[in-house]
Design brief:
The protein has 597 residues and is an alpha/beta fold. Among the domains are: 5-191, no CATH class; 416-588, no CATH class. Helix content is 54%, strand content 8%. The strands form 2 sheets. The protein has a 6-stranded mixed beta sheet with strand order 1-6-3-4-2-5. Strands 7-8 form a two-stranded antiparallel ribbon. A hairpin with a 5-residue loop joins strand 3 (63-72) and strand 4 (78-82). Helix 2 (84-100) packs across helix 5. It is flat, with a radius of gyration of 32 Å. The termini are far apart. The relative contact order is 0.07.
Length: 597
């Protein structure tokens, strides 16, 4: 066909060609793979079902789908330029109809081949969860197949009507490009501006197009890039790798776009055009118009990935880079610091960046160990809970990171994935004195926590323990109107005395009385005494729930000179804790020193 053809085609006309042979559709390598989620699959099924249930429809009425843009090829199959997501889903639905029918009544269906998935037909014939884990396309296809099966499992009596509606009353807007049209150019024109396609999916089309049909290496190069693309995309789907590199919680797919952005920014292109949401794509579009650049640019993408992967595997760089990214430092800036320098010098630059963000603007390399110790001590001493919460959070996180690095024989790594996906409070180790429970509900909750601890632990004064437990139980069992504030006050003071906590003394608001704790756990026991908090924290840790190492160490009293007094958090405990924070941070910032050539 030498001219553009635009018409409406019912689905049944897509099944076979004029000779009765199955119509062949081909998804070229430049296209993104199948990405429809269960919601989109279900919406299509619901729309078709809704149309099938219309009362007294006119004979000429039909349900119209979005355009299917194709181009005829010399070898026979139609190259799908736009609409492959919907076309693939229709094929999956039709295959489901065939599976429900006896062999005698099964229809010939159109075929669909992905250039990058030569074994697609075999997967569709016997889809399995094991095979679905091989690549992202099969993952989405398997989920779509499962969604279709589940949707029809409760609508068996409607299958024939829905099938008839899909085949005979559903049409696509068929647009066939002429022979002179460039399919890749048409693909990008159609999809730039669509929300569904991201920069990296458009860039994929640029890398995987064949610019010269006479190039004997073009097909092999195209398939190699497609295969390596899958490998990079799969590696970035690992959350422990991704959350080391990024603070974005919502981005679960298309993470490979980070690599294109970093390479583009390192060249100074693709930036400064914030009004254009596809600026990175346009930058690569301009760059890849130069013949022979695709392989070179793809090599740069791989080199960027390998550098990030090397940082991830290096235990020191993993922690320092991960901390800086959490602090909001742009990873592109970190990449700049790594250029034209040794590993030790790069690491030193990173530590200096951490120092500037957490301690002060002094020249780190000019500080002696003594002046560094004084600088850190002064910084920690000036922090207050209400005023400096952001700085305290940063320093407590740094303390955790630096503690892990302080032991070179350890292979433990901080869980940035768990930390970035959680909500974290700055928790008082010893509760705020002025926040004693006031409402009856909170008083009962506070007493219940204390009773639970006393029932599970052995305290030195057994007789006092028994009396207090009996008094607590009696208070809780009383009718609401019989519980007096005076009775609670008496119990409250006796319990504080038992746990060596003095409600009249001001609570320490400095970092020596603070630790990081997930919001859910912190809010669950509110202002409980230290011993109760300790028991709850250890239970979390034993059950495998992520608790930052230094928070765990605080409640185990690992920093305290006398760990035998486990029921209370004393002035000596606080001083030892702050001294350990200072010691660890001094060691962190002391090495390695940058060596000038």
């Amino acid at each position: 066909m030498n001219h553009s053809d635009l018409c409406l085609k019912p689905i049944h006309e897509l099944l076979a060609n004029e000779d009765g042979e199955p119509t062949q559709f081909w998804i070229p390598a430049y296209q993104r793979g199948y990405r429809w989620k269960p919601l989109q699959v279900t919406q299509l099924l619901e729309d078709i079902r809704e149309f099938s249930q219309r009362r007294n429809p006119q004979p000429q009425e039909f349900y119209c789908l979005q355009p299917l843009v194709v181009k005829a090829t010399e070898k026979g199959p139609f190259e799908v330029v736009d609409g492959q997501q919907r076309l693939t889903t229709i094929l999956l639905i039709l295959r489901h109809f065939n599976e429900r029918a006896s062999e005698k009544y099964r229809q010939k269906l159109f075929t669909l081949d992905y250039e990058t998935r030569p074994d697609l037909s075999a997967f569709l014939d016997t889809p399995s969860e094991a095979d679905a884990s091989k690549n992202v396309d099969y993952f989405y296809l398997f989920n779509a197949i499962s969604t279709i099966e589940l949707w029809f499992s409760t609508r068996g009596h409607e299958v024939d009507e829905i099938k008839s509606t899909l085949l005979n009353k559903t049409r696509v807007i068929w647009f066939e490009l002429n022979a002179q049209d460039n399919a890749v150019d048409a693909f990008t024109r159609l999809n730039v501006g669509k929300i569904a396609l991201t920069d990296d999916e458009l860039i994929r089309a640029l890398f995987l197009r064949r610019s010269d049909d006479n190039d004997p290496d073009a097909a092999g190069r195209q398939m190699r890039i497609a295969h390596e693309w899958d490998q990079l995309e799969k590696a970035l789907q690992s959350d422990d790798f991704w959350y080391f590199l990024s603070n974005q919680q919502s981005q679960s797919q298309n993470r490979i776009g980070l690599l294109f952005e970093l390479v583009a920014k390192s060249d100074g292109f693709g930036v400064g055009t914030h009004h254009d949401e596809h600026s990175i794509f346009h930058a690569y579009s301009k760059r890849l118009k130069i013949p022979g650049t695709a392989s070179k640019e793809w090599l740069r993408i791989k080199q960027m990935f390998m550098m990030l992967e090397e940082w991830f595997e290096d235990r020191t760089l993993y922690h320092v880079v991960g901390f800086l990214i959490y602090q909001g430092m742009n990873i592109a800036r970190i990449c700049e610091l790594s250029l034209h320098t040794t590993k030790s010098a790069f690491e030193r630059k990173l530590r200096k960046a951490v120092f500037a963000r957490t301690i002060g603007d002094e020249d780190l390399d000019a500080l002696t160990e003594g002046s560094l110790h004084a600088c850190i001590s002064e910084r920690l001493a000036e922090l207050e809970y209400d005023r400096d919460s952001s700085s305290i959070r940063s320093l407590l996180l740094l303390f955790n990171v630096a503690t892990l690095l302080d032991n070179p024989r350890s292979n433990l790594r901080f869980q940035f994935e768990s930390f970035k996906n959680g909500e974290w409070d700055i928790e008082h180790v010893r509760s705020v004195a002025s926040s004693r429970p006031v409402r009856l509900h909170d008083q009962v909750g506070w007493l219940t926590l204390c009773a639970g601890y006393l029932e599970a632990q052995n305290v030195s004064d057994q007789a006092t323990q028994v009396r207090l437990l009996n008094s607590i139980r009696a208070f809780i069992k009383q009718p609401r109107e019989a519980r007096s504030g005076e009775a609670f006050e008496t119990l409250y003071k006796k319990l504080l005395a038992l746990f060596h906590e003095n409600d009249e003394a001001p609570t320490d608001q400095g970092i020596s009385n603070l630790a990081l704790l997930d919001k859910g756990t912190n809010r669950s026991y509110k202002n409980a005494v230290f011993a109760v908090k300790r028991k709850a924290l250890l239970a979390l840790d034993q059950s495998g729930i992520f608790v930052p190492l230094c928070t765990r160490n605080v409640f185990l009293k690992c920093y305290s000179p006398q760990a035998d007094h486990v029921m209370f958090w004393s002035k000596e405990d606080r001083e030892a804790y702050q001294a350990e924070i200072t010691r660890v941070l001094v060691r962190f910032f002391s090495a390695p020193k940058e060596i000038n050539p």
